[in-house]
Amino acid sequence: MSLTDKLTMLMARPGGDNAQKDDVPWWMRYAGRGLGTVGGFIAIVLGLFNCISIVVLNVTCLIAGIWQMLAGFILIVCEAPCCCFFIDYVQTLSDKVETRPYWNKAALYIGLAVPPFFMCFLSLSTWFGSGLIFATGIVYLAMALGKKGSIDDMRTSAANLEAGAGGPTSAPRANLVTNEQPISFTGVPGR
């Protein structure tokens, strides 16, 4: 396979969207992809700054920096495989991740972003680098939640809740326990 064939294959990737992604606005998909790409590069650079903290013998920040660099690389592999076209398996891995639901990608990115915070909490490069990975996970989590209802649906739902037609738990005076008894005062206990 020639270099031009590889490049055209990598650039043709965004056209393979599945039916699940039709309800997500186009700008949100590009925001997730753009934030993931830029955030991955920034996380790699800032993870390198965390690795420099070995000079002051801070081993946990070194481990956090290595973790952050690996998380940034995984983010770039999943979101922008054209940046890593020299690695053969990147396209197949990216295609597998692309077919997964949005909540899987959100869980992956949030799970990759959290450990450096616990290892090197006071480092600003950890907060910003892993924070961008975490923000990418939040964008994908918002995409997994989907669109909110139309204004007519929300008005109908609010009217049903006001009227008490929303079921027994949505009425304003609903009890948590159906057999709840009122509290009564029986007097002062004897000695």
Automatic annotation (TrEMBL):
It comes from the Eukaryota. The chain crosses the membrane at residues 38-60, 66-90, 124-145. GO terms for biological process: endocytosis. Keywords: Calcium, Calcium channel, Calcium transport, Cell projection, Cytoplasmic vesicle, Endocytosis, Endosome, Ion channel, Ion transport, Membrane, Transmembrane, Transmembrane helix, Transport. InterPro entries: TVP18/Ca-channel_flower (IPR019365). GO terms for cellular component: endosome; presynaptic membrane; synaptic vesicle membrane. One of its GO terms (molecular function) is calcium channel activity. It is a multi-pass membrane protein. SMART domains: Cg6151-P. It is found in: Cytoplasmic vesicle, Secretory vesicle, Synaptic vesicle membrane; Endosome; Presynaptic cell membrane. Belongs to the calcium channel flower family. Homomultimer. Associates with the dally/ magu complex. PANTHER family: CALCIUM CHANNEL FLOWER HOMOLOG (PTHR13314:SF2). This is Calcium channel flower. The lineage of its organism: Eukaryota, Metazoa, Ecdysozoa, Arthropoda, Hexapoda.
